[in-house]
Amino acid sequence: MRCLITLLVAPLLLTAGCAPARTGTLGPAPAGPSPTPGATPTGTAPGTPAAVASSGARTPAAGTTGPTTGRTPGPDGTITVELWFTRDGRLVPARRTRPATLATSRLALTELAAGPSGAEAATGMATLLPPGTQVSHIAGGVATLVPPAGFDTGGAATARLRRAQVVWTLTQFPAVRRVAFTVDGAAPTGRDDYADLLPPIVVTAPAVGDRVTSPVTVTGTAEVFEATVSVRVLDAAGREIGTGFTLAACGSGCRGAYRMNVGYRRATTGPGTIEVYEVSPQDGSRVDVVAVPVVMAASG
């Protein structure tokens, strides 16, 4: 009998031991994803991990309004928030640096409703959030939103994308993990509930209009073939002046963080573009291209 049990259990143990592990991350915000573990990617300079400052909950000062989210201002008295706009029916990140405030959720939603800058709009970014959308309170990791009238207009897909903008923007803060919309009393939702609205490649840095130097650090998350993320640096005329590739922390079928440094050479400071893309396994063409216009410093 003991031998029979052993024969029955052994195949189950072998099956469990051989099951492929699938891991990945949607990526933190707004500090950017963690460096990709492993060897230095071919064609890139070694990266230097960015320092991420820890922050805890803060008590509102007298005279402040709105719920606090635990974000600590920088030494220059400013705070940088990440905004999730839309482009082609997907979510795309941008950043704003503003004077520090304890009511960071109010700041983030106000900036989100104000919409993209002219340079961001030129890349196709837009916002679906109406003005006046604010958080009533934050408790137990849940930010409760009281949307204005007509918040869910425009059809189911548009309404869901609008909610995704709010959720991804608010959950960048340490105190917020999910968002409750009181307009319908549904259960609070988090980033995972809208992960399908991310494009194959998300670029968290550089942002549109950033001034960059060589080597330029490129970060984000991706779900691409064999986890391979490629980058081109283009000058104002579209000439390729730098290139490289790296591996995201997770590949096909899951999303992983990536980080790489790409050097370039140019004689003068001026506009340029960072292109992040996937190489098609079918024909080798560039697909899922994300183009980020920047200002490039001259390099030696």
Kindly summarize this structure in a few lines.
By secondary structure, the protein is an alpha+beta fold. It has helices spanning 2-18, 104-114, 118-122, 156-170; strands at residues 78-87, 90-99, 134-139, 142-146, 178-181, 201-205, 211-212, 216-222, 228-235, 240-247, 256-262, 270-279, 286-296.
Task: Please describe what this structure looks like.
Residues 1-21 form the signal peptide. The strands form 4 sheets. Strands 7-13-12-9-10 form a 5-stranded mixed beta sheet, with no helix packed on it. A 3-stranded mixed beta sheet has the order 3-4-5, with helices on one face. It has a 3-stranded antiparallel beta sheet with strand order 6-8-11, with no helix packed on it. Helix content is 16%, strand content 31%. The N and C termini lie far apart (77 Å). A hairpin with a 4-residue loop joins β9 (228-235) and β10. The relative contact order is 0.16. It is α+β, with helices and mostly antiparallel strands and 300 residues long. α2 crosses α4. The chain has 2 domains: 78-196, no CATH class; 201-296, Immunoglobulin-like (Sandwich), CATH 2.60.40.2550. The protein is globular and about 55 Å long.
Can you give keywords for this protein?
300 residues; alpha+beta; Immunoglobulin-like; 2 domains; 5-stranded mixed beta sheet; 3-stranded mixed beta sheet; 4 helices; 13 strands; disordered N terminus; Gmad2_Ig-like_dom; GerMN
List the helices and strands in order: HEEHHEEHEEEEEEEEE
Task: Specify Rg, calculated over alpha carbons.
Answer: 22 Å
**Major β-sheet, in short?**
5 strands, mixed
Overall shape: globular
Number of strands: 13
Helix content estimate: 10-25%
Query: Order of strands in the sheet with the most strands?
Result: 7-13-12-9-10
